[in-house]
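Exam revision sheet. Question 4 asks you to relate a sequence to its structure. Input first:
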Amino acid sequence: MTVFVALVAGGLFLPLSNQTAKRGATNRNLSNGRQVALAAKLFAEDRDGRFPVHLFELIPDYLTAEDLSKLRFAPPLPNGEAGEPEYDWLYFGAFQTTDDPLRILMASPTATVRKDGGAKRVVIAGDLAGRIISEEDYQRELRLMISEFNERLKASPERGTNAD
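Answer key, structure tokens:
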């Protein structure tokens, strides 16, 4: 009888421990992502407000290679998705501290479909806050970021298209 009770209790406890482990991994991933976002913001403060284009620019002054290796980053594809599903974060560099502080700096590589059918993403914005936003809001913000980035490229003196 004691063995039966132990097996039943173990069967009830196992799903709870799996959920707890998943939440712990998610929280750890978000915490590590926010550390990288903070390092990118410190980098920007030291460079006239320009965030790093590539995260390896943070090594060694702002992060160690070991710190950065805790998370797997992917460059986003034009549609804002990761090229490979095993990445933890997408990093959207090449913006400035003078941009909207709610601008997405990092995002989960894929949307999570919820029970109600809506899709959500985890994002970290320029203000370093982690948020969950709808997939529609993510796609809208992504289109805006791409449009603004293209405008900056057109106006860039290095491209020879500046009227000055």
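Marking note for examiners. Residues 2-158 form one domain.
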